[in-house]
Amino acid sequence: MDFRQLEMLLAVAENQSFTLAGQQLHVSQSAISRKIKLLEGELGIELFKRVNKRVYVTSAGETLVRCARRVFQDISHTSMEISEIAQMRGGHVRIASGMTACIFLLPPLLEKFKAKYPQLEVEIVTGPTESLLSQVLNNSIDLGVFTLPVASPALEVIPFCDDEMVVVTSTKNAEFYKRKTIRASELNGQPLITFGKGSYTRKVLEEFFMKSEAKPRITMELESVATIKPLVKIGLGISILPLRAVLEEVKRRELHYLKIRDYKLARQLGIVFQKSHPRPRIVSELVSLFKSLDGRGRLSSE
């Protein structure tokens, strides 16, 4: 018994035809018939029944077909593992992320990842969430970090931290600068600089507005935290942003933040990647790294 015989066995079983099996494997029907006959002689048992030009697998043949499939699956998995070992030593991984996570969350994780795999090239891709998700789906991106929820039967989603959201104002805002908390109702009528419609973080905020009945006056809709912060800093409005994104400006007394007293506002972040079995080693390593974060997105060793 050899691999070629098992390959022919599977082709005949799947096509229920020696002729079609020969076409699939680019060999003559007689060559396949001869190989199967030799295999049946070696095993001392009939593997196929031929009835009215149709081919049926016998019960013994079904047993061998199942074993053959496992053999080729094991070979495929072994080949993949060897390929992934080579890739981990000098391959390439693409990670998608929103701008905030890219700036404030990924650097310590990637520093740890790079220390473990120094020869692996890491590429970060940013952009609109829907565009990035489509790239995860077509396998041009290995893993993404997104605001949840993300729903797709082809994707695996693992939440890993809650990103606290706070009200952010200019340090020149006389109404709020000396305060540490704010009620949701106090946002009514306030000029709000926020994210564009359709963004996942905007959806989180709209849910907050609906549940808390807060009614700020939206004056600007921008693409990212980086474009919102300078406008808040000069007093053109307030905003609601991830706390981790404004801590440096707060330390420099360029911005001020207030926690919302009567509502726990946070967006949930998760890692998203294609469902596959087995899971690619690079993805498994990244998943383990993200799972090492605590609930606030900090490395557990910190």
Largest sheet: 8 strands, mixed
| Highest CATH level, the class of the largest domain | Alpha Beta
Say how many strands there are: 12
CATH homologous superfamily classification of the largest domain:
Periplasmic binding protein-like II
Overall domain count: 3
Structural class: alpha/beta
Low-confidence segments, ≥5 residues, pLDDT <50? none
**Mean pLDDT over the full residue set:** 88
Task: Specify the number of helices.
Answer: 11
Q: What is the global morphology?
A: elongated
The separation of the N and C termini measures 57 Å
Rg is 29 Å
What percentage of residues falls in helices of 4 or more residues?
40-55%
Would you give the CATH topology of the largest domain?
D-Maltodextrin-Binding Protein, domain 2
Describe the 3D structure.
The structure is a single chain. The protein is an alpha/beta fold and 302 residues long. It has 3 domains: 3-82, Orthogonal Bundle (Arc Repressor Mutant, subunit A); 89-160 and 268-291, Periplasmic binding protein-like II (D-Maltodextrin-Binding Protein, domain 2); 163-267, Periplasmic binding protein-like II (D-Maltodextrin-Binding Protein, domain 2), CATH 3.40.190.10. It contains 11 helices and 12 strands. β1 and β2 form a beta hairpin. It starts with a helix and ends in an 11-residue tail after the last helix.
